[in-house]
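Homework-ish question, so no full write-ups if that breaks the rules, but can someone show me the predicted structure for this set?
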Amino acid sequence: MPDVTYEPVIGLEIHVQLKTRTKMFCGCELSFGEQPNTRTCPVCLGLPGTLPVVNAEAVHYGLMIGLALGCELAPRSIFHRKNYFYPDLPKGYQVSQYDIPLARDGKLGDVRIHRVHLEEDAAKLVHAGASGRIHSAEASVVDFNRGGTPLVEIVSEPDIRSAAEAAEWLRLLRVTLRQLGVSDVNMEEGSLRCDANVSLRPRGEATLGVKTELKNMNSFRFIERGVEAEIERQEAILRDGGRIEQETLHYDVRSGAISSLRSKEEAHDYRYFPEPDLVPVVPTEQMVERARAAIPELPADRAERLGRELGLPTDQAKLLAFRTDLGDFYERALAAADGGDPRAIANWTCNELMATLGDGREPGDSKLTPEALATLVAMVVAKDVSQSAAKEVLARLVAEGGDPAAIVESSGLGRADEGELAAIVDRAMADQADAVEKVRAGNDKAIGAIVGAIMRETKGRADGGEVQRLIRERL
Amino acid sequence: MSDVVDLTAAAAAERVRAGELSPRELWDAYRARAAADELNAFLWLADEAPEVSVDAPLGGVPLAVKDLFCTAGVPSAAASRILEGYRPPYSATAVERLTGAGAPMLGKTNMDEFAMGSSNENSAFGPVENPWDRSKVPGGSSGGSAAAVAAGLAPWAIGTDTGGSIRQPAALCGIVGLKPTYGSVSRYGMIAFASSLDQAGPLTRDVTDAALLLRHMVGRDDCDSTSTGHPEQIALPSAERLDGLRFGVPPELTGDGLEPGVRAVFEATLERIEQLGGTVREVGLPHSGHAISAYYVIAPAEASANLARFDGVRYGHRAAADDGLRSLYEQTREEGFGTEVKRRIMLGTYALSSGYYDAYYGRAQRVRTKIADDFRTAFESVDLIVTPTSPTVAFGLGERTDDPLAMYLSDVLTVPMSLAGIPAISTPGGLSDGLPVGIQLAGPAYSENRILDAAHALELATGFEGERARA
Amino acid sequence: MIDREQVLHVARLARLRLDEGEVEAMTGELSSVLDHIEKIGELDLDDVAPTTHVVALENVLRPDEPRPSLARDAALAEAPDSDGSGFRVPSPGA
Ligand SMILES: [Mg+2]
Ligand SMILES: [Zn+2]
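A: Not a homework solution, just the prediction itself:
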């Protein structure tokens, strides 16, 4: 058979737990590791006779997300009941938006958004080992603290073409949601959960292949690996003439194996119908305006602005935009520097400062102020302090804070002046007579020994280029 | 003591407030009669006479509550095995309002399981007998409440009406029953049967009692997203005439289907209406012939989801299944639900299942629209619609149990109003072979005051002798 | 009209275990009810909007304000099988 190359087609389904105070349909506070079943009420336990009432803030957050993702807001959206039996589903149905979602048809980065809708989270099933009551069967215990937590489900169009792209786009989505302040977006804790729909098609073909759904990968690394593994699995099947089965799959992090999940309702018939206990959500002018006003500058826009207005290289602009802490520190330093060189300050923020801080620390964790960084960078640009000396000063500013000029002064890190340097150069050339000879004889490398000696003596207060110039004058 | 029982609830409340009657005496009289219940109308009785301030609007007149209402710490099983012994941690809003207004709960009344039935024969705790003839059914699903009030075991009661479950038993037991406009009474704490249709209302000895009880039931509730409250206060009816009121008779509902005895009482009522100054004319409800079909899709569909929570995990009955989750679910529900409940869950699940939704649920919702439009049009030319409440008088126990369709069809006169969400009352129109015949008056949404006034005038002119059932 | 296989399928969906007799009875009874219901197929409903609510309400929303939750003992009070911390069930798939 001709050797075709396959193109992966990937779409993501993301569930985001909203950071409201209370649950989607009842007044129970959201739970953060409380004792099991201490955050429940008749409504979220699904007791007979209880009724749901929609949390206004969840709708507000939903509208913010819809707008931030450039979606069209539904003039009138309704809730449905999604029916299936499972112990983590107290009513026997999940209340979720089905045929008319809150928002649809948006775009984030290069990926189109299919829909954004509101729903309620399920409870937690905790495996409990062999049970006393149900002999010969394993038992689980249901904790309803999480049950009813507001969720926004975001479904992308199948616009992603590689595992790496998928992880990259999910990162963009996460910083965007974090910037909106609507969720903790923590994958390990489950406030951001991602499923991937993966299919392959011969490159150049338009029709989509049969897709599989890869469930709940709880870190960016696993998403990238999982999708990669699924692409390889499908390609292998297609290569030896097999057919892909439409199914839901689980990626095992440890073994890297992909296995088929038995679906909750093997008959897969959710019998959706409009939730008669709720009335439509009809976003008013006021609601939409309030949502719009609550949206800050989003990472994608900030990166674009830093590139356009300040001429920062793309990767630096992205770093500063996606790491809000770094970006905010940078822009404050730039403001303090007024007229200072944006590129130089960006370099010091993205390279020197990042390195000095090390992993996981934010500028806010250090004693360094944006003003101090601005001053220090200005001194470097003015050659009042050498690169290497400035790094020492930065280290001390991060550790102890203070004023850069003062530190330079007190620790004599300022640059050696002409006369002092000339004297040192003369002395060094006298001590290294043989090196001097070699250079004269044309072995230019030998100059390094002289320079090194001088740098050692000036403890980095001299500028390497300057030193070379002085030596050559004297040859 | 029996003279206390001869008082209507409103009259008793008046006496209490006037200091001529002690709530205690009232309580003891009814508590004793309820305890001697031979009709199986009650499933649970309160022992203690609760403290009631004598100037509370409902004057301490005890209230019988359908078992469908959740009542804190008190068995609330909707007459189902699957909830046998279940004691909720909270009370239904309607019950809270009434007890708060001074009507202490006397007991919980029998009903068709989960309100699914028209004869009260679907109770897991046995059928209820009709006090007019103990070989007959009291109607359903609020059969226990209707029988208790008719027999004077309770001064008044509340029930719920999804397709006729207040009006039809009221008719078959010779008392007054009112289904309010959908949304005017909170559904919070009513164990759900069909959420878009369920509505709580009074079952009482006369129209004035119904008005008084309803006045303290209606109101917007933050716990029920579909609750609207009532735009006007429910007034105690005073009308003695019907001058200027236009009554519409829909031929679609008053044709061949009616039993001769029922037709006779209905025709006598139409004459009475004219004698009282009202006018009677024909008015069409062209789609009402399809109401039963739409109803028996929509109600079971909603019920199939509402009853999914009964899975043996958090409360209620749980089977001793030992081979996994599915068998725990299936065995629990097999043991916990009665035949009619299973039948409706099956019907509703089928109507919603993939491939059938459009043909059944989708179409039924559109028929519902047509039926609501029919009424809207009708009320442009008439003020009220009048029909019998039930095509027959009380039928024999066991007579229809093996023919579900026949049982369903007996709701033909009450279901259209439920689908339209409009208020309707059933008030006694007379007797046929010694059994009560109910007359139904329906009006536009929130026209309860108009309906109560008209029913009051008819009641005065009819002079129905309900006391016979209390003997 | 509904046949035996459909009855069994629907029963599985609804988590109802029916014995032979019930399957027989259901098939007959549901069929006669469905035959009656199917009369609505005759109506022309093409441009008729479905009615989900008879009430004309919209945006019935609740302020995001916490209300007290149940004490755990109260939450578990009616549990048929509790381990003191939660509701015990056979593990799915077990
Ligand atoms: Mg979802
Ligand atoms: Zn809750």
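Now go work out the reasoning yourself. Hint: The longest strand of chain B covers residues 424-432.
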